[in-house]
Design goal:
The protein is an alpha/beta fold. It has a single domain, classed as Rossmann fold. It is built from 8 helices and 5 strands; from the N terminus they run βαβααβαβαααβα. It is globular and about 40 Å long. The relative contact order is 0.23.
Length: 170
């Protein structure tokens, strides 16, 4: 069940529609958008968040995103975090769960690999690339039972508006 909580993390592989859905939540539901990908870029100017040698910087980036989210909530905002995460997924979700408890909703947008790759190539901003899409998708598959299958939305063949209605409807 998707319930509009105080903090919503919208995540998934590249090309899943995270930014589009997060922006819709911002415009239509009054959320403040926190772009996690932008925040972690400050730690990874050349990318490579997922590389083993960058694990400590990824942890720092995750703590920074959590800290910024807490600040925004403390200022009275509802926050939607748009973030691909790029590793240490379980740790990231556990930090947020510990901080926000029942006020946290996690939504994993999860189109097919083929659709993610097409969407990734068609967008105007940076692209993730097929190899990283497959890797991230596999990493999200590994934690599906831990997060709960109900948190995953197969957006294959859906417009952003259709996906947004599914999120709002339930």
């Amino acid at each position: 069940m998707y319930i509009m909580k105080q903090v919503i993390i919208v995540t998934g592989p590249g090309g899943a529609g995270k930014t589009t859905i997060a922006e819709m939540m911002e415009m239509e539901n009054g959320y403040t958008l926190l772009d996690g990908d932008h925040e972690d870029t400050k730690f990874f100017q050349n990318g490579g968040q997922w590389l083993p040698e960058n694990t400590e910087n990824l942890r720092k980036a995750h703590r920074k995103i959590l800290g910024k989210t807490k600040e925004m909530v403390d200022q009275g905002n509802k926050v939607v975090v748009d973030y691909i995460i790029f590793g240490l997924y379980r740790d990231f979700f556990e930090m947020f769960q510990e901080a926000f408890g029942d006020d946290l909703q996690i939504i994993v947008l999860f189109p097919s690999i083929e659709e993610s790759v097409v969407r990734d190539k068609e967008r105007e901003c940076w692209t993730t690339g097929e190899e990283r899409i497959q890797a991230v998708r596999g990493e999200f598959e590994e934690i599906k039972d831990i997060l709960g299958k109900d948190k995953y939305i197969d957006t294959t063949g859906q417009t952003p508006e259709q996906t947004f209605r599914i999120i709002k409807r339930v």
